[in-house]
Amino acid sequence: MPRFLIAQSETPDERAARRAHTGQSSGESYADTLGQMMPGATIEICQPADDGSPVFTAGELAAFDAVFLTGSPLHVYDDTPEVRRQLAFMRAVFAAGTPSFGSCAGLQVAVVAAGGTVRKMPERMEAGISRRIVATAEGRDHPLLAGRAPTWDAPAVHGDEVETLPPGATRLAGNAVTHVQAAEIRHDKGVFWGVQYHPELSLGEIAIALRRQVDGLVEAGLAETPAEVEERAAVMAALHDAPERRSLRWRLGVDGELADTDARRREIANFLAALPSIDRRGAR
I want to staple 173 with a disulfide (CB 3.0 to 4.6 A). Which of 160, 182, 266, 275 is the partner? Predict the structure, then answer.
């Protein structure tokens, strides 16, 4: 059975805060998702951004079948010890040639580690649902997006975005809010597939994230009042409990691409299916 490593870049305080609200850190949430999708896999979690955390060598990382990078509040354009440690970890992953996948901040870490840039989104953000994502010409034929509809919605909560992709990267999808919603990065010996949205998260977790960020959502103009955020979060949580309810899908303006668990996780499933064919020398 495969052996997976999940790298979470939340600080200890951020992990504790997420557990208090959600019951799990981002890495633990990712581990649950992977465990459901591939029962029997060996799944380990590490915290490469933490001071004193074990430092993985490229040789040690090569022993894993895949590395997954979670979302987090990390801002990779900040020159902090936490960011530097996280980027060093990702560069070791690329050097190892171990296939990797990341969502949200995970995509951003891979971009910067390979030489691209990330920025704070100018006067906008995506929260709750990333709308009308469309594959590029390259993305339509890429296995990461196999089975995706011509346009789709996905769970998302982010205020940072990819500004420029690094050399060796291919933009696979975008929307009107964020130019890079999915990408492949080839760097050193490694291949990384990533998305700006959150295929690993349940709708219930997204509802909790909206409630945690209520003040920021009102300040960003996505809602007029905290009550509006709560209303949206309540519908999202209800759809989590009853994904087949057409009335809830209608209220959120979504279809099965977001409401159905398997469809929501499509990119992760495609990555897992492609692992045997991803060459560890940087070629598919």
Answer: 182
